[in-house]
Give the backbone structure.
Amino acid sequence: MTADLSEKLGREMTGDPARATDEQPETSTDTLPPPAKLPLRYRNRFVEFFYRLFTERPLGAVGAIICVLLLLTGIFADFIAPHGYNAISPLDRLKPPSAEHWFGTDHLGRDVFSRVVYGAQLSVIVAFAATTLSIIISVIIGLFSGYLGGRTDMTTQRVVDGWMCFPDLIILIVAVSVLGPGTWQVILILGLLFGISGSRIVRGAVLTAKENVYVHAARSIGASTGWILWRHILPNVMPPIIVLYTTRLAAVILAESGLSFLGLGIPPPAPSWGGMLSIDGRSYMFLAPWLAIMPGLALAIAVFGINMFGDALRDILDPRMRGGTGRYIARVRKPGGQTT
Amino acid sequence: MLAEETHRHDHAEPETQQEVLLRVSGLKTQFRQDGRTVTAVDGVSFDVRRGETLAIVGESGSGKSVTAMSILRLIPSPPGEIVDGEVLFDGKDMLGLSDEEIRKMRGSEIAMIFQEPMTSMNPVLTIGRQLSEPIQVHRGGDRKSLLAKCVDLLRKVRIPDPENRVKAYPHQLSGGMRQRAMIAMGLGCDPRLIIADEPTTALDVTVQAQILELLKDLTRERGTSMILITHDLGVVARYADRINVMYAGRIVEQGSSGDIFKHPKHPYTLGLMSSIPRLDQPSGTRLTPITGQPPDLSNLPSGCPFHPRCRFAEDRCRAERPPLTQVSDQHWKACWIDVNKP
Amino acid sequence: MGSYFIRRLLALIPTLIIASIIVFSVVRLIPGDVLDLMLSENDYSATGHDTREQLERALGLDRPIYMQYLSWAGNALRGDLGNSLWRNTSVTSEIAERLPVTIQLGVLSLIVALTIAIPIGIYSAVRQETIGDHVGRTFSIIALAIPNFWLGTMVVILPAMWWGWSPPNDIVPFFKDPLENLKVLLLPSIVLGASLSAVVMRMTRTMMLEVLRQDYIRTAWAKGLPERTVVIRHAVKNAMIPVITLIGILIPILFGGTVIIEQIFRLPGLGELLLQSVSTRDYPIITGIFLITGVVVMLVNLLVDMCYGLLDPKVRYDG
């Protein structure tokens, strides 16, 4: 839910025609020397990306490590978790954390650590499925609306406007009330919800890419629309799409757990982090606070990691916001050691 | 405070052309970011005398603006930093002043006129408000007298209907008008030095000439010194007394306007001149642009930074960086080559 | 100026129509078997909806689709959103009863969020890369990762465990006894406001930095203005224009937040009504709330655009 903001903010700053603020011309580059940074070179792009991630953005690197850990936990949940996610053991109810049950047990005697691990798996599955779906929807709407322009664009954008009037969580709740709770329903609804709102970003990027000289050139020599979209537009809108994908992962995880928290997401006994925190288990949490702490912590760390990685990714792929703006009183630091 | 009084007294006396108002020596300004350091200005020295106009010429990224900004320490910090050198304004060490003291110099003793008045003026404040700010801060005054002063200033820069224009917002004026208002903003406190950073770049050619004439008249009648920053040698020829040509953060040629135009000594200056049309050349003479790209300041070529683009370059140019050496009384160059040799 | 407002108002009409179609389609999307399920699960005899036909009529599913839309939209315009399937109350009155709590919670949270976030955001931008900036950003990074439902749950559980204290949930109308009212709503508002403040802070900082990069800020410094004047007169005033639009962005998030916070603190607001209606499949109420939230968001955005127009001289004089 919160990550959606960065997208809306991004829209604000890339100059969405819907709320046209006058474009501010670039700050004069003459006073500041041109950034010494070279654009990512094609051949060793990944190597260079990770090099810069680790040297320039240590928090982003921490985020990347958390993301990898989350992914590995999801993939190897069966090997990591000591117990099944629904292995009920009535004798071990509400046991505090111990060597045997690292995160304690819940009111049915299930091992909370195992449930958190399987919860990671569930989050990873939902996040990737819903985000991929949402990006596909965003790209399709954004490409066609932005590239075709004219009446198509106009109509599409009004529909998107109408859709975006509704608060995300309310749409989700209403949709669940019609489709019913369940993993596939949640993936479908989240994909659609974020897909439509994300199309704005793709459209904005397409509008910019469309104005490139080579697109005009390609059109003038009679290249087909499909070819232009595939060869010229799509590669140009990839950076924002990649950034969108990452921020969406966190948004999807948060939205899914929010829904499950309200009892409208993935139904029990599936070990959704949000579901584990849900209001139904509240009375046990007073007796066994680890029930509330552990899944929440897992959720917060996962979201933190993805956010940090996404931020670093954006800074490196789209360095618009770089460049310091300190106070305009230059420090003087002469070799003599005198400092003002 | 006392010192300031005496300066003011000096000011009233007849100008002696030779007296130095500003002396910059060995100035070095760097920008540091993400562990990288860019030296934008690298050991620059020059003087500005009372009442004269000094031009600093160079491509964008040559360090000409940063040089001028460094005088007022108008460099965002972080990432900018002045790491070496001395700036003496009327004997006062600008680099040794406290933040508060430097603030008092800005706009009152030394004023800036920026390029692109559309972005250099605040879009949500009226012209009058922006014009009166420096006067209010440095000289004080009530609302009414400030307003009268603003109207007066606008009239001086020949803006028609100044009584109404003070109430206008920047977007309601044309580009030329905005630039005039910008100049008025600089003149508000009667500064002794005006730094004009590409004051005409964003304007039409006809408006450019008007603005420059205006600046010339205003500085002449008040005996104000001016540093004119530009990439346009054509502008310099008419309006500057002396010229500094900068390349990659250093001065490559320095001299009087006449010397530099009649006897350019540095290949870069030559290049700049042959890339502007001149009336004193036979018609049909081709304009030859300087080939290649301006250098990357964080990764300068060895030796003379201009050698990759220089058609005279020799082995020595690639190995050793040439110092600024005197060629005649008031003329200096940083080049190993004698370009006049056949 | 006037024409700007009129254009904004006119632009609202297509959006409103599309939004209403979206809400309307929800009713149409209800699959047939859900009706059977509703009939088998529940006993509607009290309100006289005990056959499928009666239920369809109550939901307005028995007429041609455009007729259904037109009559539904017409009624909605007159404030008639139908009746609850369970109780013989009108949806409008149910919503009107719950709305004050939600609005108050929302407004209080917004105030909390803005008062925490805007000063920190401005400070963080003005003193970029200093210790204060890092502290502020670390706070926002961490707060951004903590979901409001977890924060709320902890705020309810921990004091109860440690001191046996739990937050009250008996709402007294604000104008009857403001103090008692705040006693109930203050804590939930702080929780929601705090979780929102991370986002607001981040955006305020970004917008301030964007403004601080502008040429006119350098001009202000060059005039010799004190830093305080540069920041307050030149930067904040320009940054506030986008920050106002930020409020428009926050309103939908606030709605989502109130649903969760009302659930955690058991407050009788709109969100609680919505969740209750979802569990009893009371579709007229669900669609009613759906529509109301959309309209409120739209109106707030209109208001934001108006303020925007008032602040930006370009719009004020030439719009």
Observations:
- Chain C has a mean pLDDT of 83.
- Chain C touches chain B at residues 128-129, 214-216, 218-226, 229, 233-234, 237-238, 241, 311-314, 317-318 (CB under 8 Å).
- Residues 97-311 of chain C form a domain with the MetI-like fold fold (CATH 1.10.3720.10).
